[in-house]
Structure formats: structure tokens, C-alpha cells
Design brief:
The complex is a heterodimer of chains A (389) and B (241).
Chain A lengths: L1 H15 L5 H33 L6 E6 L12 H8 L6 E13 L6 E9 L3 H5 L3 E5 L8 E5 H6 L8 E4 L2 E10 L8 E5 H7 L8 E5 L6 H9 L6 E5 H45 L1 H10 L3 H31 L3 E5 L6 E5 L4 H27 L3 H4 L4
Parallel strand pairs in A: 3-8, 5-7
Antiparallel strand pairs in A: 1-9, 1-10, 2-3, 2-9, 4-7, 5-8, 6-7, 11-12
Chain B lengths: L11 E14 L2 E14 L3 E5 L6 H8 L7 E6 L2 E2 L5 H11 E4 L11 H6 L9 H14 L15 H13 L5 E5 L7 H18 L2 E5 L3 H4 L4 E6 L2 E7 L5
Parallel strand pairs in B: 3-8, 3-9, 6-7, 7-8
Antiparallel strand pairs in B: 1-2, 1-4, 4-5, 9-10
The chains are: A alpha+beta (389), B alpha/beta (241).
Chain lengths: 389, 241
């Protein structure tokens, strides 16, 4: 109790002297705020990208691919296999789909980039749910018509309703723009699967079959029925799992990059905090020596210095996280998905876990920055320091 | 010489025997105290005098447990303080020693009362009891009316009174004063010396005071002189050693 009282008392004194050390304290806070803002900013890209791929996907949607495939692009399902899949019991709805890439000029740079074009069946909207036409109308089966996802329409030229574009020998007319509530489909262009098959000489094969099950719990039975069927060589995944895996390489890279940048910056910020706390200790040398002479222990002194450093760091952390939230949350961007090579539109997402990570990061910087000055404070030679000016 | 000229017949509350203190500076060993003996009886007001570098402040620091001797023993109130660990010394200081510093060493962000209360935070006293003790200490130094003032708004003399109140608030065994009037004008210095005399006379406080000032040492019951780390004379007020 007595020890705790010492800690609280000394911490309270040191906090009250912060205004006398305004300059270095503000420098430390700003340094840490900068690191946290950058860290949260970069990680919000990964969080937004991951959310764009997975957040709108229900657990009752499954995707069927060829057994050896690791993505839709490398998967192929013949007509017979698709028929067996579509005839499975306990399916709410299904869509056999083709997936390919086309080149369109980006609105921002005018340079060509890959856009995913998806040939879908009549039930594609029903399987996914939440697909709404924002502008224009749905494409008509059997015609060279496409609808563009809202994210794709925002990022690429020639995807406004009424536009048309050529790919190979085919001309495609844009008749609508759709939303999937922020899901990955918004980065795609959709058309009739049968038309895409003939345009790309795919015969009657597909890349994948998307299936809506009656309940999420029905997944295991559905999976077992297909993988146990000797006529099929397929793998069955929940769509959410598949999409998360597809984005994993990029999200891991961005997360790694975020921490690498933040670590380098943190090194600078820690030196800033060290400098601040060393000067705080130096400025309070006589005061600390006086407290020690009166009988206050070394450990309460250490904790008070750490507490001050921690408080400054947390203020910096909160400031940085707030700045990152204001600057980045919801910022619209698009990037290429390294596993499908298509552009994915997404919004930066400053999520609560990111904010917590930011505060933890700031606290670590504060503790590291305060540690050595705290040791110095504890080891001040009392007799000499009592006479320092 | 050895100190055998105590002013009372009581058993010494401070007993320094063959104390040595050396410092290393740039590879050179500097002997600050050299086999020094000193006894201070309970209730004595002792002045330590000597030129700069004679070792008087070092001796005061050793008696106060702020530093450890290189050799010899320092016994205060029956405790061999040279044997105590740093942590034990801190507890011992809190219980036994009241320090008065030349530059007052008050915490500028705290009021006079909160400064005086500091040593009481190391005790098990309740908040109300601490408040009562602070009021008594401030009353003893005549500063009750300035309790809520911060050091910046107090004169040098007043700040030193707060320092003395802080030193006596726990009723310590020993008051150690390091140049208590060194930063004050003559008038304020006299007031502080009178206060110390009154604490010694009326409350029986044992006081050891380091000073350069013969005017200050004249207020003490005995003055010992140090030179080159050795005790060279001990003069009882009104007599020659």
C-alpha cells in the first residue's frame, strides 16, 4: 500500500511537471502519433482489401473447383461434372461460372489493367444475394451485353452504361452497373456464361460452380457428397474461405510492409521518446535525488518515469489512430489481386482491432523509450544530485 | 585528533569510527575522509566547519545514509548503517533522518503543505493524520498561513522554513542540515538559525549542521573543524578544545 502510494505520488508529481517540458514532450507525442498513423494507414489497406473479399459473403455459399486447382483461373469443370453438381440434393440455387480477364484503360492513368469478366448463370444473383442494379438494367442472356460492378465502373473507362468495348473479335455493350454491397463482385464485369463460353472458345466447360446451401451447416454434407462421388474430381470450399485464401498473399504482404515501415519509423520515435525522457530525468535530477533522500524507493521512481513515458505515448497513439481514422477510413482504392491478377476495388478500413493494435504499438514505444531513462533516474547518485541546479 | 569532547554525557546517537571515504577521479584516488572519529550525543546541536573539500558534506552524507563509507563504521541510533542495502537505507532514512538542504529542494509543483507531507507518504498514517502532522510542522516553523502557497511564491527564508517543516514532520532521530543559510541573506539566515536553535532547545532535536559561516556555527553548542578529511578541532560554545 505504502509502495503503491509512493508510485502514485511520484507519478502525479512528474505528470504535473510535463507542462514545464512542453517542447520535448510534444515532439515525442507527435513522433509516436506519426508512426501510429502510418502503421494504421498501411494496415487499413490490408484490412479493407480483406474485407472487400470476404465481408459480404455468407457461410452458406460454397464454391466447387477442379480438385487440383487453387483458383478459378486454373480450374476447369466439364459439362457432365457441372450437371452432377447442379443435380445435388439440398441446393437452394447454383450458378455455373466462367472467369477470365480483359484489359481496359484505368480512369486515373489511362493505362490498361486487368479486369475480371465473369460469365454467370441465371441464378448468379440469387446465389450471392444482395446484388442490385444501380443504373441501367441486367444483361439479356444470349446477347453480348455486360453489367459492370460499381467498383470496376469507378476505376475503369468504358464501363459507363451505354459504353461499349472490344475484346478480341467481340464488342460488348455495357447495359448496367451493379452493386454487391461492397463485395469483391463489384470489381468484376458480368455477362451471360453461354456467351462468354463461345466468345472465348471454351466449348461447354466452366471454371467453377457457386452454390447456395439451405444453411451453413449443410456445407459438410454437400462437400462429402461431391468429393465422395466417383464421377467427380472436385474440391469444395466455403466461398468466404476461398476468397480469404485468394487475398492472403497480398494482405500478408501489405501487413508485413506496414509493420516493416512502422518498425523503422518506431525506431526514430523511440529515440525521440528516449530523448524526451532523458531530458525529463535530467531536468528533475535534484527533485528525484530529494525524494530518494527522503526515503522514497528506486522502484517507484522507475515506474513514475515509465508511466510518464507511457502516458505521452498513449496520447501520441490516440492522436495517430484518430488521424489515421479521419484520413484513411473509407478511402476508395483498387489494387491487383496477385492470385487472380484482376483489379479489386476496396475501401481502406480502420477497424477496432487496428486501433487496439495502434495503442499497443504506441505503448510499446513508450515503454522502450522510458526504460533506460527510468534506470538512469533510479541510479542517480543521491549525494551529488542533491546539489545540482 | 579524535573527537572526545562531547558536550553532554549521554551515549552518542552518532558514532563514527575510523571512517574513510575515497573517490576515483580520472584514475586518481582522492581521499576525502581519513580515519575520522566523531561522536554526537543525543540532543546536541553540532556545527561541522572547514574549507571546501575538507570532507564536511561527505561526512554529513555518510551519517545521513546518502552515501557509503569506503572503510570504518557509522552507527546512528544503534544501527550500523554501512551494512544496510540501498533499499534498507531508504527505509532507514525515512524513519530516522530529517534533511535540510542549502537550496531547499522543494518540489515546485506542490504547495508548501504538500511538500511537507512528502515524508509522511512513506508512513502508514491516514490522510487525516498526515494533514494534522503537516499543520503541526508548519505551525512550528511559523508558516501556517502560507500552507497553500507553492515554493515560487515564497521567499528564500520561507522556502527554507518549509524545508525544515518537511524535515521535522516525521519527528526524526536526527536533523542534518547542509548549509541551511548558505542561500539566504543575513536576516533570513538568522531566523532559520533561531528556528534550528529552538528545535534543539525546546524539542531536544539532535542537529548536525554543515556551514562555512562562523556566524552560523556560533549558534551551535559545539563546532568541529575538518581539514583534508580529518577532524582538527572541536570547540564547545564558550570554551576552546
Amino acid at each position: 500500500m505504502n509502495w503503491l502510494l509512493q508510485v502514485l505520488a511520484i507519478t502525479s508529481f512528474s505528470m504535473r511537471t510535463i507542462p514545464q517540458r512542453r517542447g520535448p514532450s510534444i515532439a515525442a507525442v507527435v513522433g509516436i502519433a506519426g508512426v501510429v498513423a502510418v502503421l494504421v494507414g498501411v494496415l487499413s489497406i490490408a484490412a479493407g482489401f480483406r474485407a472487400a473479399l470476404t465481408s459480404k459473403v455468407g457461410e452458406d455459399i460454397a464454391i466447387v473447383l477442379r480438385a487440383s486447382a487453387d483458383s478459378e483461373s486454373t480450374s476447369g469443370l466439364e459439362r457432365e461434372a457441372v450437371r452432377v453438381i447442379l443435380d445435388s440434393p439440398n441446393i437452394e440455387s447454383a450458378s455455373a461460372e466462367l472467369f477470365s480477364l480483359i484489359n481496359l484503360p484505368r480512369r486515373s492513368t489511362g493505362t490498361d489493367s486487368n479486369v475480371a469478366i465473369r460469365g454467370v448463370s441465371a441464378d448468379a444473383s440469387k446465389v450471392r444475394g444482395g446484388i442490385t442494379i444501380l443504373e441501367g438494367r441486367m444483361f439479356e442472356p444470349g446477347r453480348n451485353e455486360v453489367i459492370a460492378g460499381a467498383g470496376a465502373a469507378r476505376s475503369f473507362a468504358k464501363l459507363n452504361v451505354g459504353d461499349s468495348f472490344r475484346v478480341g473479335t467481340n464488342t460488348w455493350n455495357v447495359v448496367g452497373v451493379f452493386s454487391s454491397g461492397g463485395g469483391s463482385e463489384e470489381s468484376e464485369v458480368w455477362t451471360d456464361a453461354a456467351i462468354l463460353q463461345s466468345a472465348y472458345d471454351r466449348g461447354d466447360s466452366y471454371n467453377s460452380v457457386l452454390v447456395r446451401l439451405p444453411t451453413p451447416d449443410a456445407f459438410d454434407a454437400f462437400k462429402d457428397s461431391l468429393t465422395g462421388d466417383p464421377r467427380l474430381k472436385v474440391k469444395v470450399l466455403r466461398l468466404s474461405t476461398y476468397l480469404a485464401d485468394q487475398g492472403e498473399m497480398l494482405t500478408e504482404f501489405i501487413t508485413g510492409l506496414g509493420f516493416a515501415i512502422a518498425s523503422l519509423m518506431a525506431l526514430g520515435a523511440v529515440f525521440g521518446a528516449l530523448n524526451t525522457m532523458y531530458s525529463a530525468v535530467a531536468g528533475r535530477t535534484r527533485e528525484i535525488a530529494t525524494l530518494r533522500a527522503l526515503g522514497f524507493g528506486a522502484s517507484p521512481i522507475v515506474l513514475s518515469v515509465l508511466a510518464e513515458s507511457l502516458v505521452l505515448a498513449l496520447i501520441g497513439g490516440a492522436l495517430g489512430a484518430g488521424l489515421a481514422y479521419a484520413a484513411f477510413n473509407g478511402y476508395q482504392a483498387s489494387t491487383i489481386n496477385w492470385q487472380t491478377f484482376s483489379q479489386i476495388a476496396f475501401a481502406f478500413a480502420v477497424t477496432p482491432p487496428l486501433l487496439v493494435a495502434a495503442i499497443v504499438w504506441a505503448a510499446l514505444m513508450g515503454l522502450v523509450g522510458g526504460f533506460f531513462p527510468a534506470l538512469r533516474a533510479a541510479n542517480i547518485p543521491i549525494a551529488n544530485a542533491l546539489r545540482e541546479g | 585528533m579524535t573527537d572526545s569532547n562531547a558536550s553532554t554525557n549521554d551515549a552518542p546517537i552518532v558514532s563514527v569510527r575510523k571512517v574513510e571515504k575515497t573517490f576515483r577521479r580520472g584514475g586518481e584516488e582522492i581521499r576525502v575522509l581519513d580515519a575520522l572519529d566523531l561522536d554526537v550525543p543525543k540532543g546536541e546541536f553540532l556545527a561541522l566547519m572547514g574549507p571546501s573539500g575538507s570532507g564536511k558534506t561527505t561526512l554529513l552524507n555518510l551519517i545521513g545514509g546518502l552515501d557509503q563509507p569506503t572503510g570504518g563504521s557509522v552507527v546512528v541510533a544503534g544501527e550500523h548503517i554501512e551494512d544496510l542495502s540501498s533499499r534498507e537505507l531508504a527505509d532507514w532514512r525515512a524513519e530516522n533522518i530529517g534533511f535540510v538542504f542549502q537550496f531547499y529542494n522543494l518540489l515546485p509543483v506542490l504547495s508548501a503543505a504538500r511538500n511537507v507531507e512528502l515524508p509522511l507518504l512513506l508512513t502508514s498514517l491516514s490522510r487525516a493524520e498526515r494533514k494534522r502532522h503537516v499543520a503541526v510542522a508548519l505551525e512550528a516553523v511559523g508558516l501556517s498561513h502560507r500552507a497553500s502557497h507553492t515554493p515560487r511564491t515564497l521567499s528564500g527564508g520561507e522556502q527554507q522554513r518549509v524545508g525544515i517543516a518537511r524535515a521535522i514532520v516525521t519527528d526524526p532521530t536526527l536533523l542534518l542540515c547542509d548549509e541551511p543559510t548558505g542561500d539566504l541573506d543575513r536576516k533570513s539566515g538568522d531566523e532559520i538559525l533561531s528556528l534550528l536553535q529552538a528545535l534543539n532547545r525546546d524539542q531536544g532535536k539532535t542537529i548536525i549542521m554543515v556551514t562555512h559561516d562562523p556566524h552560523a556555527s556560533a549558534r551551535a553548542a559545539r563546532t568541529v573543524h575538518l581539514e583534508k578529511g580529518q577532524l582538527v578541532s572541536s570547540v564547545v560554545a564558550g570554551a576552546m578544545a
